[in-house]
What does this fold into?
Amino acid sequence: MANRERPLSPFMLGQTYRFQLTSFMSILHRITGVALALGGISLVWWLMSIAIGGEAYEFASRQWASPLGLAFLFGFTLALVYHLLNGIRHLLWDMGWGFELPKVYASGYAVFVLGTLITALIWFFGMRSAA
Amino acid sequence: MSGGPETSRAMPFRTPLKRARGLGSGKSGTSHFWYQRVTAVVLAPLAIWFVATLVSLVGADLETARAIIARPWNTIIFAVFLVTMFWHAKLGLQIVIEDYVHQRWLEITAHFLNHFLCGLGAIASLYAIARIAFAS
It folds into this structure.
């Protein structure tokens, strides 16, 4: 523990530094990770509702289909797709691939483009499955 | 790029203590880093299977949902996915807590809750999946 307040470098996002895709995607990876961990609790709740059955499953199904439930599911899909794609990017870096700055930016933009497409695809099939 | 003449000239100023001994001061070596990657590699393909199964379950009634989860490979993949997911979540949340929570008592509480809730999530998922699989 530090016994004296020492000067710290400013936070990477905010007024001090120019906006950078790299630091933004890094913090977004953590934020989506935390969000997915919290959302994971709802997965357990959903599985439990299927195990219990009856009124519990009816209740859970109504919650998922409500506007708030759908908004939650949409956010969950976005977070999952982003975290998955950016996670693959991290694993490729760990293997030594794409660590040059132009490639870091190219793969970064690819995550957003692919992520939007995949999220749209998941919801297209989800809606078709519901209809 | 190391090992050039500059490096060897600088050598006398370095002591053997630049190397970590045994598992290092953290006493866990690279196990956290390694298991975060191992779980990530396992989760990537399983997440695709899991999402595809969830999409097929949209609007399903109870009997259909139970029957689909109770298919042998779905049961196994659901179980492996959820346990690995909570393991990966525990490792990730641990890093977030270590990095951003600076009040000691709050940090310890957060670590405790993280361990406990991720363990609970994994066990509860296994219980629910087993009940669905073995009831039908």
Q: What stands out?
A: Chain A touches chain B at residues 1, 30, 33-34, 36-37, 40-41, 43-44, 47-48, 50-51, 53-54, 57, 77, 80, 84, 87-88, 90-91, 94, 122, 125-127, 129-130 (CB under 8 Å). DSSP finds four helices and no strands in chain A.
